[in-house]
Amino acid sequence: MFGSHSQKGTKTDADGLIGNKCRQNLWVYTADCMPIFFADKSTRNVATLHCGRKGLEKKIIKNLVKIFDSFGTSRDNLLVAIGPAISKEHYLVDKITLQEFYRKAENKNITVNLTKIKNDHCFSDSNHFREQNLNQLDLKRTAYRQLLNENIPHTNIDISNLCTYKFNNEFYSYRRSKTISRQWNLICS
């Protein structure tokens, strides 16, 4: 959705916003999903995405880059920043979810060797740790690969190493505490 189509003082439900006017602020709120920011350093067009597992599976990054293509944006001029999101160490999923994710998000059929991961309190019935057959899913790495597949130079991509799950005093995390609270992220043109 174009930011200029939203009305002042209203919220729009969308997983992406594109700034097509100068001096426009685009806001997105996230908890464990990635805020991904795009900026064309030549035209100053900007965009933001709310991107998690489902967004990566649906190729939301590729679709947004196509919109920048329609603006005539050169890949060399496209800067991308991936903000704080859940890290792979804390995004644990079952084998089937992981296999489906890689099949859809990276067009790969993979066989996952199940490894036992000791989990924290979020996955235990009590304060005692127990072992579960869960696998780490790396959203940021997959987003990075999708950006590279769109021929965005790796030197134009910046990825935050902050984990929304781990840093409980700095960020909200749905997976950690089932909160409905979110962080607000913004980019300005």
Automatic annotation (TrEMBL):
Known catalytic reactions: inosine + phosphate = alpha-D-ribose 1-phosphate + hypoxanthine; adenosine + H2O + H(+) = inosine + NH4(+); adenosine + phosphate = alpha-D-ribose 1-phosphate + adenine; S-methyl-5'-thioadenosine + phosphate = 5-(methylsulfanyl)-alpha-D-ribose 1-phosphate + adenine
Superkingdom of this protein's organism: Bacteria
GO MF term list: copper ion binding; hydrolase activity; S-methyl-5-thioadenosine phosphorylase activity
UniProt keywords, alphabetically: Hydrolase, Metal-binding, Transferase, Zinc
Tagged with keyword Disulfide bond: no
InterPro entries: Cu_polyphenol_OxRdtase, Cu_polyphenol_OxRdtase_sf, Cytotoxic_necrot_fac-like_cat
Protein purpose: Purine nucleoside enzyme that catalyzes the phosphorolysis of adenosine and inosine nucleosides, yielding D-ribose 1-phosphate and the respective free bases, adenine and hypoxanthine. Also catalyzes the phosphorolysis of S-methyl-5'-thioadenosine into adenine and S-methyl-5-thio-alpha-D-ribose 1-phosphate. Also has adenosine deaminase activity.
Family the UniProt entry places it in: Belongs to the purine nucleoside phosphorylase YfiH/LACC1 family.
PANTHER family: PURINE NUCLEOSIDE PHOSPHORYLASE LACC1 (PTHR30616:SF2), UNCHARACTERIZED PROTEIN YFIH (PTHR30616)
Protein name (Swiss-Prot/TrEMBL): Purine nucleoside phosphorylase
Organism: Prochlorococcus marinus (strain MIT 9301)
